[in-house]
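Lecture 7 notes: from sequence to structure.
We start with the chain below.
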Amino acid sequence: MPATRSPVHAHGTPVLTVGEAHAALARALRDVAAAPAGAVERIPLAAAAGRVLAADLPSPIDVPAHDNAAMDGFAFDGRALGPGAALELDVAGVLHAGPPWRGTLGIGCCLRIMTGAVMPEGADTVVPLELAQPLAQDAGGTPSRILVPAGVVARGNHRRRRGEDLAAGGTALAAGRWLRPADIGLAASLGLTALDLRPRLRVALLSTGDELAAPGAPRAPGQVYDSNRHALGAALARMPVEVIDLGLRPDRPGELEAALRDAAACADVVLTTGGVSAGDADHVRDVLARLGEVAFWKVAIRPGRPFAFGPLHGVPRAAAGPAVLFALPGNPVAALVAFLVFVREPLLALAGTAAPPRPAWRLPCAEPIAKRPGRTEYLRACYERTVDGLWAVRPLAQQGAGMLSSLCAADVLVVLEHGRGAVAAGEPVEVWPLADLL
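Predicted structure tokens for the same chain:
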């Protein structure tokens, strides 16, 4: 792993800032490709949401396919409009969305037209229904002659042009797009039934520790139920990856090594929790040293200080290149925060897509926060209204790394930068809305 000039922990482990950790991850992953170049899966449209587009998607048709009315009104030839003069028009008929009008409109005539209907030949302008004044009606009460008041419409108004959304042959969706519901709708509007997608990144997920019990199983004295694997699995389920759940594994060296070999053989990424703190048994480091080039870091962050990362060169794989290990801390909140800060964006890059911009706002803090420079802190907080009716954030009282209930109660993470000191009440702080991330 790349060397760093960061301070060294008492146990010999380098201490990185959050920025240094991001840079080291980016350097290490620069040449890692989880899927072979050009790998493509043809997937039905109904199963394509949440997947990553393998190549640019050209539009096979113009969208819209014809000039059409942008709103309900009356379609006519805009050349008849005169500066500062009203216009009287005879209504030749009614046109709904669907088959086009048969015939050509002449000067002085118009069609009652509905939104989306094909503009009739000879018409290029629509006057909205509410702006046209009826001058005469037929026996059924439909206007047979209207007045277009002066100045309410200009030639070409309220008409959608053929191909103004997408021109045939133009790029409808770009390669690497993480497909959302609107993208699926767009593909369907082009008449497509399947898309060429990248193979899903395979992520093997396991929890380590003799102190863990599976939910639903009896707990031995001193054991706690494993929450990390389920929380991280749920976070991964919202991403364009395939999750391989390998369950719980004990701290015994032989079983740990076998579990990691199994994970690296079947997945592109191995994601573990626990076993990376300075107090862990030496066999954890020994096992990882045999399997690959794994570095143990201490990151100047709260919560989530211990972290390990690296390629598992020592495990043969059918796919090109080694699997990559991300080893997160065992405390539940620390594991989720470390996932958000260090793992989510690299996983998206390995999956072939760019992470969407992380929503980061600045809001005033409702109370002072004690902090010393030297680490980045992520505090759970909730929105609240100030007396002026504006929004502020208030950190929750419980900030322990194992207190999942406070993360459930939080609306945002307050991000206090590495060099920042104490925060005064009313001072703005950066916040990450959790609904967009977890």
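Points to note: The longest strand covers residues 376-385. The longest helix spans residues 332-350.
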